[in-house]
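input
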Amino acid sequence: EAFEVIQLGGVSSAASALSQMTARLGSGDTALASAVRKQQDLQAYWRGLDKRLLAELSKPSSQRSQERTERIRADIVKTEAQLNELDGTLEQRFPQYAELSNPQPLKVGAVQRLLGNKEALVLYNDVFAWVVRRDGFSMQKLDVERGVLTSMVRKLRSSLSPQDGGLPAYDYGEAHELYLKIFKPIEGELDGIRHVMVVADGALTSLPLSLLVSSPYAGKGKPAWLAKQYAFTTLPSVSSLRALRVLAKRSEEGSDPFKGFGAPRLNGDPADRRGISAVPIFSKGERADTSALRKLSALPETADELWVIARSLRASNDNVYLGDRATEAKVKSLNLSRTNVVMFATHGLVAGELRGLAEPGLVLTPPEEATSLDDGVLTASEVAQLKLHPGLVILSACNTAAADGKPGAEALSGLARAFFYAGSQSLLVSHWSVPSEAAKRLTTTMFKTLERNPGLGRSEALRRSMMALAANDNFSHPIHWAPFSLVGEGAGRR
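output
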């Protein structure tokens, strides 16, 4: 019961990230849009009836009309019946939309049926952890306070930021202490498991578990990285496992290897960080404030990342869109339905509080004047309307944490769900800016590993690539090999 209730809390926290997306999905002329608009109209009508009933019941008894009260109640019952019927129609005809707009908690048995023999799902919430595997289920209370956990994560992340152009000393002691607090208590339940899907909350959303160490390390030999034992995948919610493995469409390999977008034309200091709050960008209404966008820091280094990965995938130079070519209108105009890998190397509107009209999204080159087609931000609702191949989307340096380490998981969840809805099955998300040479080696090795063994799965291919890079003395610091987390489907053929 606790496992299901905790999922309901996650659905609530993601509501603001999804509300604008689902609303805009109803703005077109398709059968889905028509059904969604009817649903929205009925919901608005129901809310109006509810307010009228409350107003009527709040009147003094001498002024209250029994006939009017009963009529309003009858209308409410009728409207609820219409909504239930429409909800059933949407779930039957458009199951992906139903999962996106109203994800339901999964029972333990349902999760177990979706898992492979060597897979487990780990759900972290506050100071509790749940482990679900095909043949077992457990719940553990972790011996750590939430504030202490946040402090430990921030301390560890601080050793993943370059200092004066050099590498900081990695805090192996803190990495081991964090392992003892959050992973050691559940590790007994992971015997025989190789692929661990993690649904995290709070500070843990901003830290890949792969860089924890399972035994003390004093500088001799190689650290016992957790990535040596497990391939990790991040899920934005437990219910997304159903969306990926039951609802997702599978297809053959696409004919186009790669398309990448980055280095948008911006005027800010390139030294500033990536990953910003969406709120100021949408402070003036539904469209992004293009003048505010232009003040964001320029990202010239993202061009190198894109060229490196394009070459590693043998893609044409024409498939890299930079500067004036990296626009929202261009993304929407391209046929991405047969592109195996799509990459965005830019600011991500993921960190910080989302409110009002603000949506998570990706910053591209702003137009002179914002329009409904192009305002410089590819929002979650617009991502959801793309038609993507069920391949891989790379979001480079779309940090899931703000400068102070505060996580922006809610917005990442909104972006991830949008890409899943559009057809992608996996996202490769970086937690900090990736040095170009490291990005080249990580992605090239990952893709070559998958090419040799397509059934291996993206998470295992990424794990092998990370460990190969970590074994190289020139790239052994986690800042090089551990920046990426795989979000979504990470398994091969189960």
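quick obs: Residues 12-24, 353-357, 400-405 have pLDDT under 50 and may be disordered.
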